[in-house]
Amino acid sequence: MSYFFLAILFIAELVKEGIFFGKRKRIPVVQMGFITAEILFFLLLVIFGGLPLDTAWLFPGIYLVCGLISAYFLFPEGKKKDGKIRKAAKYHPSALPVHLLLLFLCMIPALLFPPVIPLPVTGGYAYETVSFTWIDDAREEEFCSDGSSRRVAVQFWYPVSGEGENFPLIVFSHGAFGYRMSNYSAYTELASNGYVVCSVEHPYHAIFSELDDGEVIIVDKQFMSDISRINGDGMPEEENFRVTRPWLRLRTDDLNFVMDEITRLCGEEDAPLPFSITDPDNIGLFGHSLGGAAAVTAGRERPQVRAVIDLDGTMLGEETGFADGKYQMNTEPYPVPLLCIDTSEHYEQGQKYGDQYVNHVILSLAKDGREIQFTDAGHMNFTDLPLFSPPLAALLGTGTRDAGECLVTMNGIIRDYFDYYLKGQGTLSLQETY
Q1: Any stretches that span the bilayer, and where are they (predicted)?
Q2: Confidence at residue 81, expressed as pLDDT on a 0 to 100 scale
C-alpha cells in the first residue's frame, strides 16, 4: 500500500508539473487541486488503508504541506498587491527536473522503510523489553586510542509472569553490519514462549550502536572494508584467517562478558527484572552469520550452554590455523547439541568442500550435530531486514522466498529446538530441507 501511494504521488506530481511546463506558468487552481487531492488520498489511506504515520513519512508529509502553502501564498493569481493585479508566477523549464528530484529525495525514507506488520507470536506470555550498556573494565576498547574500556549494548525481551517462574536464557549475536534488532521476530517469539532473550550488540561491528548515554557508534571503516573484500573474493585465504581472528575474539569476549554479567545480576538479592526470572545455568546461544560463528565458539567455553544454533554462518572460530594452503581445525569434541540453518547455496558449497569445510568437521564432532537448508532463501532472509527494508535486504542478498513465511518457519524451528534441549519439551523432528 505504501509503494502504491508513492507511485500515485509521483505520477500526480509529474502530471501537475508537466502542465506547468507546457503552459510556462504555475496555475494556482491546478496546484491547489492536485495537492488537496494528494493530501486527501493520503489521509484516506491512513484512516482506512492501514498506512501508519511513522518517521519514514515525515518528509513526504512535509512536501505535501509545503505544496499546499505555496499554492495559497506564493502563487495567488489575481490577488491585488500595491494596487496591481498579480499574475501567476512564471515556470522555468529547469524547475521540472529539480522539483521531481526533490520529491524523490523526500520519498527515499518511505521507499527504504515501508510500514512493517509485525509477525504474530505463538506463545501465551506477554513480554516486555529493557536495554542496558555494560562496561567491561577488564578490556580496553581496541577501536579507540584513549584507553577507555569496552562497552557492550544489550537488550532483553522477557516474559511477564506473576507465578514466580524462572526461564531459560537465550543469547543472540548479530551478523556483520547487523544490530541488536536484527532478529526481533525471533526474540519476541521466544519471549512469548517462556524465554529470557538477550540480544548482544557489538559496537564497531554493528552498523550503529546507540548507548544508554545517547552516544551513537558507527561501524568501523576498516572492518567494513575487510568484510567487503572477503565477500567479494578479494582476500587471500591466509590473510582471511589472520584478519578474522580478532573479530571472533572480540565477539566471544563480548558474549562471555555478557553472560558473566547476567549470572552476577541473577545472584543478587532482590535482583530486578529480567534477572530475577532468569536461569543463568540453562543457556541457549544463537547468531546470524559472523554472530553464528561467535555463538558456536562461545558454546564450547561455558558448561551452562545447553544448545547452539548457527544461522548461515561459517564457523570461523573453529579454524585454528592455516598452512600449506589448508585450514587446520579444532578436533576436540563439540560438547553440546549444534544446529546449522543454511541457505541452499551455502549448504551446497559445504557439500562441495566436504571434510575441508569447517562446519562439517565441527558438526561431526558435536554431541548432536545437524544441518538443514532453506530453499530459495538468501543470506538476509535469516534476519528481519526483509520485513523492515525490502530494498536494502535485496541489495545485501535475499532469495525469491516469501520473507514472512521464511522467518515464521525458521523461528518455529529455533523455538522447538530450544524447547527440546533447554526445557525437555516436545519432539525434535527436523527435515533436511525446508
Answers
A1: 29-51, 57-75, 96-117
A2: 52
Bridge partners of 342, per DSSP, are 373
Looking at residue 13, what is its pLDDT? 84
Does residue 17 contact residue 100 with C-beta atoms inside 8 Å? Answer: yes
Residue 70, C-beta contacts closer than 8 angstroms, at least 6 positions apart:
31
Rounded to 5 degrees, φ, ψ at 101 are -65, -40
- Among 90-94, 422-426, 427-431, the minimum mean pLDDT is found in 90-94
Choose among 410, 413, 406, 405: nearest CA to 429: 413
> What does the alpha-carbon distance between residue 155 and residue 178 come to, in Å, rounded to a whole number?
14
**Cα radius of gyration rounded to whole Å, the chain:** 27
Q: In percent, how much of the chain has pLDDT > 90?
A: 65
**Helix, strand, coil distribution of the chain in percent, nearest 5:** 45, 20, 30
Entry pTM: 0.84
Band of the pLDDT at 176, cuts 50, 70, 90?
very high
pLDDT-above-70 percentage for the chain: 93
Count of alpha carbons within 13 angstroms of residue 38, beta-carbon side: 28
d(CA 122, CA 169): 18
Instruction: Calculate helix-pair angle for 58-69, 95-112, nearest 10 degrees.
Output: 150
CB 168 within 8 A of CB 418: yes
Separation in Å, CA 16 to CA 20, 29, 175, 381: 7, 11, 46, 40
- The burial class, CB within 10 Å (0-12 / 13-18 / 19+), for 295 is buried
**List of domains in the chain:** 2-112 (no CATH), 127-423 (3.40.50.1820)
Report residue 67 as a C-alpha cell.
505544496
Residue with cell 580478532: 246
Query: Tens of pLDDT along 189-220?
Result: 999 999 999 999 999 999 999 999 999 999 99
- What are all long-range contacts of 245-249, with beta carbons under 8 Å and residues at least 24 apart? 246/142, 247/205, 247/223, 247/290, 247/316, 248/293, 248/294, 248/297, 248/316, 248/317
Buried b (16+ CB within 10 A) or exposed e, 47-66: eeeebeeeebbebbeebbee
pLDDT of residue 53: 64
